[in-house]
């Protein structure tokens, strides 16, 4: 690993300083890969959604929806869905200004091409537990097997021109669910789908996970807001599982658990301009619970603001799992009053009984943190608590500046290896492999690297 890393580091420097060099084997360009993780947003965005004219409106009101927030509009939604799903060029319309009470419902595809869901009104969930469908205890609005579908909503005060094929202005839009004591509930789920765009929805007060993207590919989420009280348990904002090529952009999330959580089977996840707070930060994991497999690769968070959160950017794994987290870049992140701004926790244990240390663990490597600044609540602004048996490797820190009010700030390492360049405050010397401290020397130029560790 150390060899691989040295070569990568060299590559990185070449990138920074423009030093030419052809002795590098392209197989070893980890850092270059880290720098080029971004996926093309256009690849996930259905392209027809701004098309106007020729649309068939399927208004839930035409199917008997009342929209008074009290009458049961579930059946109207189901019928409207069946029609919209089977009608070419249709727009499933939830009109503005009304509150539609809808039970837990599965909206199944496949549907005809280019279906648009225009959700301008408010969909509310039943709040009495006895009104929940016992057959769907974990779900509320569950959309599955969709290909090429756009969910969109007008945001309050926004200009309709850019958002919708239908003209509405100043409508208030959100999916609302009131808190009750229900367990494991997912408010909005997109499952087993591809090429789905979700734009401008607001999701409020989910009992647990607000928005779940599961077993899907090519999903774009733009301008989505999630809000839950900071003390609501397990209310993840956006949860991504088993999904690839996902873009989250311009999302504002305040919740009682992770603002974003990315778990097993997810790859090519691109997050851009994310606001998080209150909440538990942006997380990869948890992974490896109950000795399970956890694989997450190619995740980029670029431009984020985290305010008053318990964690900033976090990777969390349980003892005893297997699999790996490879290729992650967190960059351009501003933290304000964050308890654990940068944290890898391989001793994660969200269970009433203590977890024993085990010999297997999800392996963590190639994690880059770049341009991350702000204030930390705890002394250990950076914490790399890695598995004793499966160390973290190739952690790269660049331009980190985390401060604490009383001036004491520190980095914790357990079984973690990596390096820093540029400003790294607090210093992260504990990432250097013992006995190899010399290899980065002052860490500011090609010539100063001691290549003795790099045996190609
Ligand atoms: C919605 O849930 C309520 C309470 O369980 C039930 O009475 C009603 O029939 C459900 N509506 C539909 C359309 O299934
Ligand atoms: C920080 O978050 C906590 C818990 O959600 C909340 O009680 C507190 O008011 C927040 N503080 C600020 C300054 O927003
Ligand atoms: C983890 O994801 C892989 C696909 O990458 C899947 O085959 C496996 O079943 C998942 N494991 C768990 C525990 O979800
Ligand atoms: C560093 O990140 C901050 C916060 O996102 C951003 O405002 C700033 O432009 C970034 N600096 C550079 C050099 O990219
Ligand atoms: C597990 O290992 C870590 C790191 O070596 C150590 O700090 C912690 O105390 C151990 N936990 C248990 C329950 O043995």
From TrEMBL:
<keyword id="KW-0732">Signal</keyword>
<keyword id="KW-0964">Secreted</keyword>
<keyword id="KW-0134">Cell wall</keyword>
<feature type="signal peptide">
    <location>
        <begin position="1"/>
        <end position="21"/>
    </location>
</feature>
<keyword id="KW-0326">Glycosidase</keyword>
<dbReference type="Pfam" id="PF00295">
    <property type="entry name" value="Glyco_hydro_28"/>
</dbReference>
<feature type="active site">
    <location>
        <position position="280"/>
    </location>
</feature>
<comment type="similarity">
    <text>Belongs to the glycosyl hydrolase 28 family.</text>
</comment>
<dbReference type="GO" id="GO:0004650">
    <property type="term" value="F:polygalacturonase activity"/>
</dbReference>
<keyword id="KW-0378">Hydrolase</keyword>
<protein>
    <recommendedName>
        <fullName>endo-polygalacturonase</fullName>
        <ecNumber>3.2.1.15</ecNumber>
    </recommendedName>
</protein>
<dbReference type="GO" id="GO:0071555">
    <property type="term" value="P:cell wall organization"/>
</dbReference>
<dbReference type="InterPro" id="IPR011050">
    <property type="entry name" value="Pectin_lyase_fold/virulence"/>
</dbReference>
<keyword id="KW-0677">Repeat</keyword>
<dbReference type="GO" id="GO:0005975">
    <property type="term" value="P:carbohydrate metabolic process"/>
</dbReference>
<keyword id="KW-0961">Cell wall biogenesis/degradation</keyword>
<dbReference type="InterPro" id="IPR012334">
    <property type="entry name" value="Pectin_lyas_fold"/>
</dbReference>
<dbReference type="InterPro" id="IPR000743">
    <property type="entry name" value="Glyco_hydro_28"/>
</dbReference>
